[in-house]
Structure formats: structure tokens, C-alpha cells
Amino acid sequence: MSDGRVLLARDGTFAALTRGGGVTGRRGTSPDGLFRHDARHLSRWLLTVDGAEPAVLTPARDGSLPAASVLTPPAVRDAPAPYTVFREQAVASGLLLERLRLVSNSPDRVTARLELLVDADFADQFELRSDGRAYARPPEAAREAGERPDGVEFTYRRGEGWLSRTTVTCDPPPDEVTPEDRPGRRAGTARRLGWTLTLPPHGAAELALRVEARPHGAPPVADVATPARAAAEHRAGIEAFTHPPAAADAALLSPAERAALRTACAHGLSDLALLRVPAAGPRGEPLRVPGAGIPWFLTLFGRDSVLTSLFALPYRPALARDTLLALAATQGTRHDAFSAEQPGRIAHEVRHGELAAFRQVPYGRYYGSVDVTPLFLVLLQAHAEATQDTALAARLEPQARAAVEWMLGDGGLAERGWLVYTPDPGGLVNQNWKDSAGAICFADGTQAEGPVAVAEAQGYAYDALVRTARLARGVWGDAPYADRLDALAAGLRDRFHRDFWLPAQDFPALALDGRGRQVDALASDAGHLLWSGILDRERGERTGRRLLAGDFFSGWAVRTLAACQRPYHPLSYHRGSCWPHDNAVIALGLARYGLGAEVRTLARGLLATAEAHGWRLPEVLAGYARSDHPAPVPYPHACSPQAWAAATPLALLTAVSGGGGT
To answer: How many CB atoms lie within 10 A of CB 260?
Structure first.
């Protein structure tokens, strides 16, 4: 992870550890622990050797499988450590596995004292964020710890229907299990597990530890014997997924840049393999979809999962198939103001945690997104076109038609002429990809008030109508429906040119507010209009060139807002930062309009950014110019890895090979 911690992730389970393999109970922007189903199932995992924190001779390396570190008791030059601890850790679905091998450095018999402080706070991820909000629990909600012959089990109960467990088992069993000594404080659930191990001269001893995270409603996990075996299985799965992408002619780049792009693609595919999470299709079929990112978003996210799948479609079409089926299975069927569900609407995100289950947050299945529904339709047609297999498009015809009806009805396209959203006071104020408060603003910084018609969503709607018309005509055998959709798309394009274009700036408006006023901030969203094809040729070319001007392009990437405007801030989440996935869409749009020089400039900036981050593109970086600092300045709260950032090199590969989309 970007903050120096070690990340292990597999099948929707992830562990964030210190370099020495511990868990401190950290909260805030970069929590540590073992996580599954949006809850922290291990909040303390602190090893002491001979009564002290061990020295870390070799820290674990992020990305290594298994995570391996070398520890010793504290020592000095003239009294070296009597033994060394070789630590291996790995995760599997619902499991953290650890092997401690103690090797004697002495010709005499050595006694080693190991203690492990363990706790599980079952904190919901929404609690762990640094926004300071507190979520009330009923009085009967309680955490408990119970001893087992081979370890300890932690439980969390809420009412009669909610039970989560974390079970720690040890081989050999601990000599004793005692509560944490907390002088002057009420005893908590933390337990200290202790072992006294005897090492023969230059001999060894081993300790195997297994942590099972079993959230409410989850079945027992499959057993995996050792970290090495878990790591080997995981490594095999990653290698199967990360074989080199199909050859493409990256003619716009130099040979050195093509090599850099291959490296970035390989790292991106490796991260995508880590981020795949289990999901279910309409018939309950098991799927693996790209979860959005770690630590906060390792779950199905409509917009993120769709865009990730679109970027990867020419190279890994199975991601698109599974994403489409998972989103079809969660498509809205009723009106629910709390979750923003509406018939035909595609889900923004799906959560499994306690606060979502008890509707203390609306995100169990939350539908507050204006753009994922048209993007679902774009992906459906793109998948059929890329794979030359129309079976999935035929199977999901009912869901596709329902998505179109949502756009026309609750989405506002028929009544208002635009795809619109109304800010959700209990959920997301803005419901496009720039979903932070204040992101959709005028050039003076004033936030647009709803119903808001944001520019890129109109482009997505246009593309969705055009593509769904192709499906209707070529797959579903419904020419009248196709004609209707084509007419709707043409009307939307004409209105967009009339109402969104800013003549003085020669650039598209960011949005129309609820009063029909042009929201006149100059924003990167315009690049999405190139990708969707809603702009005519002349406007598209001028827009693309403008995005590579110095106030937009930092030298690393295109900023979310041009720096010449009052609301610009290089450390703002959506008002001046740079997002790799946003730039991937822009690159595909530039390629669509034949702007090869601009594609090359943008690709070079992003490749330099990737190299500066060890080839793992972060979710977002600060908007400072390349002339301000010789390396990209990190955004302080970025998720890493993040799925659509990981897929960005694949989109660049398509763009520099002359592809303008999927």
C-alpha cells in the first residue's frame, strides 16, 4: 500500500499489515486489519518475543506472495539475538494464515517466549473512515471473547439475527490465553496468547496460526493448510489472469515507451486479479467481478466495475461478462427513497456490512448514480461487438429494456430532455463520477443545485441509445424499437450542441443546473464527451486540443478542473486533482477523434506517473504541475490499488493503437 503497509488480498478478503506483519488497530484514512464484507475482523495482531517488540531485520514487501519478514528479539552488537523468527503470511477467502519458524542461532538449547495480542473490533468500514461520524448501536449489541483449547474466538451479536465471528486457532495450542492487562481500565475483548518454545542447539520450532473471518450469513470457509499453499494457489490464479494482453500496434509510442506500457499493463492486470470479488448472477451463478478498490471499496461498484470492464474488454472480456450479470442481478425493481432504488436502475454499489444491513447507511444496495445505467447498456453492446458473441446480449434483453425505460422515465430523459439527478441528502449529493460535495460547480465555485444534468452523463446516454439500437436491430430483431432509440439519440445530440456549448469559452459546460443555466466551470468531463461521440467533429477536435493546454494538463495528467479558475485546488478530490481513469477515458476519446499527437502526450504523462509509483497507478494524484515538482505529488487519501486506475494502462494500449473505445 502507498503508506508503507503490506497488502494481502484475495476473493474479497484483504489484510493490511505493518511491514513486520502486525495489526495495530489503526483507524482513519489508512486502517489496518483483516477485512471481509465491509467489517474489520482482526483489529490487533501484535507479536512480542521475549517480552519485547521484535526487531525487523527484513520487512515484508508489498506484493510478495506470501508476505515474508524476518524478526529477532532486540539485541546489540556484542550480544546478538539467540534466535530468528521467519514469518510468512497469506490470505485466502475469509482466512489469514501465518507460519512462524523460529531458528536457533546458538550452540546451546534456547528458550523462546512468544506472545500474541489479538482482538477483533468488528468495526464497520464506514465507522473507520476519518469523517468523525458516530453510528449508534442498540444496548444489546455486544462483543465477546471466548477461549478455545487451540486459541480464541471473538463474536459480535446485534439483536437475535446478527452474529459475526473471528476464530483464531493455533498449532501448537497456546500455553495460556489471558485478557489484556489494562491497568485502571475496564477489560476489553483483547486476549494475549502465550507460548514457551524450546529450541535445540541450532534447531528450529514452528507455530501455525489461522484466522477465520466469518461475517454474518457467510458460510464456513474452505480450509487451506499453510501460507505457502495459499500463496501458491493465489499466485497461480494471478499468473493465469496476467498473461500478456493481446498484441496491439502501439504505433504512437517509441520502443522504450511501448516497453513501459507493457510493464504498466502487467502491473495493472496483477492488481485487477487481486481486486476481483465474488458476486452472484441473476440465476445465482457464481461470478468474479472487479471490486472498486482498497481499503474502502472492495465490493461491486456499478460505475467503477463497468468502466474497469470496458477498459479491459479487448483483453479480458470475462470481466465484462461477470460485471454485466452481477449488475443485472441487482437491478432495481421498486421505488425506495432511502436507497434511491427505482425500477430498471442499475446499482451504484452493493455492501454487506452491519450498518448497511440495519439501514443506518443507505449503501446496502444503493442506486444513487445517474450514469451507471447508461454505462451498463454501453458495456452490454460493447461486449457483444468485441466478442462476436450475442448470447449474453440476448439473455439480458429484459434488463437492457428496463434500463432504457429508467433513462426515459425516472432518469428524466423524456420529461426534461436530459438525464438528471437530484442531490440525495442521505446519500450522495452529486451522482456522477465526481460525486463529492461541491464537485459540480460554476466557474466562481458555486455548487450547482438540482435537478442537475451533468455533461458526461448526456454523452453516456447518447452512446447507450445508439448502441442499444444496434442490439435491437441486430440481436433482438426489433427494428421499430431500434428506430425509436436512434431518433431519441439524434434529438439528444442536437439539444446538447444547442444547450451545453459555451461560445465564449469554445468548450462544453460541465452541467445544466435545475434552472437550466450552464454550469460554466471548465472540467475534464468534456473528455468523456469525446469518448461517447456526442460532439460533432469540429467541436470534438477543439475540445480535445483544449484539454491538453497547460491549465488542464499538468504534465502528468489532465486535471479535473482547469487551473485558471477560482475553484481550482490541486489537493481537492474533484476540483483540481488528476484521476488516471478519467484520463483513460479522455485518451480513448482523443483517439476516437483522431487526435494522435494529444493521445501521445497524455500517454507519456501517464506512463511517467505509473513509473514514479512503481507501475501501480493510484486512484488519484494531486494537480501540481510537472514544473512544480520533479515527481507526481500524491493525493493524501488515495485508494491503492484501485480497479479503474489498474485498468488505465489497458485503455492506453487501446488508445495508442488507434482504438477510440471498445
So the answer is: 20
H or E segment and range at residue 115 = strand 110-119
With CA atoms as reference, report the closest residue to 262 among 279, 240, 280, 242: 242
Cell reading at 552: 488542464
Whose grid coordinates read 476519446? 589
Q: 16: which 3 cell numbers? A: 493490511
**Measured distance CA(541)–CA(187) in Å, rounded:** 67
Q: Which of 320, 291, 318 is nearest to 306 (CA)?
A: 320
pLDDT of residue 455: 98
CA torsion through residues 521, 525, 527, 528, sign = negative
Strand 151-158 relative to strand 162-171, pairing? antiparallel
414 burial type by CB count under 10 A (0-12 exposed, 13-18 middle, 19+ buried): exposed
Indicate the angle between helix axes 580-592 and 537-547, nearest 10 degrees. Answer: 140
Cell numbers given for 242: 496476467
Is residue 594 over pLDDT 50? Answer: yes
State the pTM of this model: 0.94
List the beta strands (DSSP E) in 173-215. 176-179, 191-199, 204-214
> What confidence tens digit (pLDDT) does each residue in 314-357 have?
999 999 999 999 999 999 999 999 999 999 999 999 999 999 99
Dihedral angle over CA of 146, 149, 152, 158, nearest 10: -40
Cα 13 vs. chain centroid, distance in angstroms?
13
In the numeric block, which cell numbers belong to residue 425?
Answer: 441528502
Angstrom distance (rounded) from CA 169 to CA 367: 40
Q: Other C-beta atoms within 10 Å of 381: how many? A: 23
**Do residues 296 and 305 touch, judged by C-beta distance below 8 A?**
no
Other beta carbons within 10 Å of 447: 18
Beta strands 511-512 and 453-454 are: antiparallel
Instruction: For 54-88, give the DSSP string.
Output: PEEEE---TT-SSEEEEEE---BTTB--SEEEEEE
pLDDT of residue 221: 83
Tell me which long-range contacts 302-306 makes (C-beta under 8 A, separation of at least 24).
302/327, 302/346, 302/347, 302/348, 302/349, 302/369, 302/372, 302/375, 302/376, 303/348, 303/369, 303/371, 303/372, 303/375, 303/433, 304/642, 304/643, 304/644, 305/643, 306/372, 306/375, 306/376, 306/378, 306/379
Handedness of CA 175, 181, 187, 191 (dihedral sign): negative
User: Which pLDDT band, with edges at 50, 70 and 90, does 247 fall under?
Assistant: low
| Residues 83, 110 contacting (CB under 8 angstroms) | yes
Residue 415: CA atoms inside 13 Å, Cβ hemisphere, count? 9
Q: What pLDDT digit, counting tens, does each position of 484-517 carry?
A: 999 999 999 999 999 999 999 999 999 999 999 9
Cell of 287: 461470478
Q: How far apart are the first and last CA of the chain?
A: 31
pLDDT in tens, 48-101: 999 999 999 999 988 788 999 999 999 888 889 999 999 999 999 999 999 999
Buried b or exposed e, range 120-137, using 16+ CB within 10 angstroms: bbbbbbbbbbeeeeeeee
Q: How many CB atoms lie within 10 A of CB 628?
A: 12
